[in-house]
Amino acid sequence: MARPLLEVQELKKTFPARGGRQLRAVDGVSFTIERGETLGLVGESGCGKSTTGRTIVRLYQPSAGRVLFDGEEVHSLHGSALRRFRRRVQMIFQDPLASLDPRMTVGDTIAEGMQIHHMGTPKERQERVQALLRAVGLNPEHASRFPHEFSGGQRQRIGIARALAVQPELIVADEPISALDVSIQAQIVNLLERLQQEMGLTYLFIAHDLSMVKHISTHVGVMYLGALVEIAPTDQLYSEPLHPYTQALLSAAPLPDPKVTRTRPRVVVQGEVPSPIDLPSGCRFRTRCPFAMDICSQVDPPLIEVAPQRQVACHLHAARSTAA
Amino acid sequence: MILRHDLPPEAFEWVGPDVAAREAIATPPLSYWADAWRRFRRNRVALGALVILALMVLGVLFAPYLRPFTFDHIDLSAHNQPPSAQHWFGTDRLGRDLFVRVWVGGRISLEIGLIAAVLSLAIGVIYGGIAAFFGGMVDNIMMRIVEILYGIPFMIVVILLMLVLGSGVMPIVVAFALTGWMGMARVVRGQILQLRNQEFVLAAETLGASPAALIFRHLIPNTMSQIIINLTLLIPDAIFTEAFLSFVGLGVQPPVASWGSLVSEGRLQLMQYPWQLLFPAILISITILAFNLLGDGLRDALDPRLRQ
Ligand SMILES: Nc1ncnc2c1ncn2[C@@H]1O[C@H](COP(=O)(O)OP(=O)(O)OP(=O)(O)O)[C@@H](O)[C@H]1O
Ligand SMILES: [Mg+2]
């Protein structure tokens, strides 16, 4: 089997917090993404999704663990290898307005990456900007406009065009649709899906809600307080969620089919998310888990494979481990 | 409204949604600066201040040549004259033409104000930019240094510099630049710290932009409005500082004149010949007022969020 495009191994990222303490934003996350696939990464606000994404694209240095892109360790790249990485991996951001420089025209914004990587002559770059604007469904004449003149959905299309301009292979999309109207969300997801097929892109698609990633993802990972608690192929995760937290997230999400809604397990979590500075002992979800047992406060359950392609970090499923 | 029921279905034609029209933007493209200029132009007071300052610059450049005197031409037979057709602003106690002296003095005052402010700006932008961009320990140490320097009284800096550089224009400019940059550094640092983690800067970093490209293409242009506003407040501050130093005798030395030294000389004969103090005092007040009004106008135009 060919090596995966992206491999994240035991990634940790801590931020210094008040009083010399550590905020564990990402606490030992591992996953792989195969070329052409989409991993949907889901979790509540503050669980470390953005930090994971930003560490992968090397906006942050990891505190521990490694990220391999196409077999190369991302955080030890330098020189021309780093430049190549900067071209091959791009990011789309959550806030469509904040992600565009207010002082630059849309055309200059989209052309910036091509300029940095010396792609084409100025004339060719200009033509490519027009083509990209067309590809994301915008009027090519808008290249001379400024970001504040566009709607939220249009701005996100500009951000997508900027990322595409350097012909990347992996795109980390950090909640690209969360700030948009529901009616616009589907348009952007469809656009990303179409572009993926046309250009053979690989996505890490971050969202805070399971319903947003169902359509586009081949696999879905669920994060809770800096850790992956479950990762599975999309249809299996939705039809048979294993981790109580995944079950809770699904219980909260409306489904189009009321029969399924009625028959699926109802899991309701109580209480607040603990602070990432003060993680609970043992399993990080136990304080809110309706099925918590004695062992949960003593041993942090590792993410283990319980069935082919299905990994979950929960003592309830430890017995099913294929490794055991 | 009249409802027509007699139209046959064939009379209607399905035109479909016009996607192009929906996406079209009606207004012409407007850059940030064009938009700011549009807002600025509507502000009569600020526009007036700008015109006055432009006239003031033209005045110090050309007005002295309207009269057949030089600023240091002494004519003791015509001393302490009131304003007349010959001497428009009168003469001083050595018979020097005050109209010429006021405008030549303004040249020095504006020059000092401009050079001192631009020097402070350069130091402040570079210092604040470096502190904010590299952050962490670098930022911590650099800002501690600023806090310590803030504590040194301005007059001590001036007097020490005069010991080294002698009196005159140079020590004033240097003293002001050495003290005036700190406010600018704080403004620039605050703004860049805020911008540093904005998504558009992260996006440029993800595209592979170098630190220099990030600073000069994204961070500084987005700090420009604050820099300009701060500059329009630094200039009158420097002009006023020069006037004050010249007034207390630490500034420019005769026969060279500045607004400050002219006021200082006029003060000696205020009771007998009040115009000797009046004309330079009026020009200095108008200039400082105009700069402050211009600064307010620019703030409103460049940073609409700040307007209450
Ligand atoms: N630069 C930083 N410095 C300090 N703490 C940070 C920093 N960035 C993130 N954090 C903290 O790390 C934790 C994870 O943040 P992160 O932004 O990754 O969450 P998220 O899952 O993306 O949430 P959201 O859905 O709100 O975007 C949060 O507790 C946050 O406060
Ligand atoms: Mg986030």
Report on this structure.
The complex is a heterodimer of chains A (324) and B (308). In chain A, 31% of the residues lie in helices and 22% in strands. Chain A has 324 residues and is an alpha/beta fold. Chain A has one domain: P-loop containing nucleotide triphosphate hydrolases (Rossmann fold), CATH 3.40.50.300. In chain A, the strands form 2 sheets. Chain A has an 8-stranded mixed sheet, sandwiched between helices. In chain A, helix 3 crosses helix 4 and helix 5 (152-164) runs parallel beside helix 6 (182-199). Chain A is globular. Chain A starts with 5 loop residues before the first strand and ends in a 12-residue tail after the last strand. The model of chain A has no long low-confidence stretch (mean pLDDT 90). Chain B has 308 residues and is mainly alpha-helical. Chain B has one domain: MetI-like (MetI-like fold), CATH 1.10.3720. Helix content of chain B is 67%, strand content 0%. Chain B is built from 12 helices and no strands. Chain B has helices spanning 19-23, 32-41, 44-62, 98-134, 136-150, 154-165, 169-196, 199-206, 211-219, 224-247, 259-268, 275-302. In chain B, helix 2 (32-41) packs across helix 12 (275-302), helix 10 packs parallel to helix 11 and helix 11 (259-268) packs antiparallel against helix 12. The radius of gyration of chain B is 28 Å and the shape is flat. The two termini of chain B are 45 Å apart. The model of chain B has no long low-confidence stretch (mean pLDDT 83). The chains are: A alpha/beta (324), B mainly alpha (308). The A-B interface holds A 54, 57, 59, 82-83, 86-87, 89-91, 93-95, 98-103, 105, 112-113, 116-117, 138-139, 142, 144-146, 149-150, 154, 159, 162, 166 and B 20, 23-25, 27, 29-32, 198-200, 202-209, 213, 217-218, 221-222, 224. Bound molecules: adenosine-5'-triphosphate and magnesium ion. Magnesium ion binds next to helix 1 of chain A. Adenosine-5'-triphosphate binds at residues 15, 23, 25, 43, 45-51, 208, 276 of chain A.
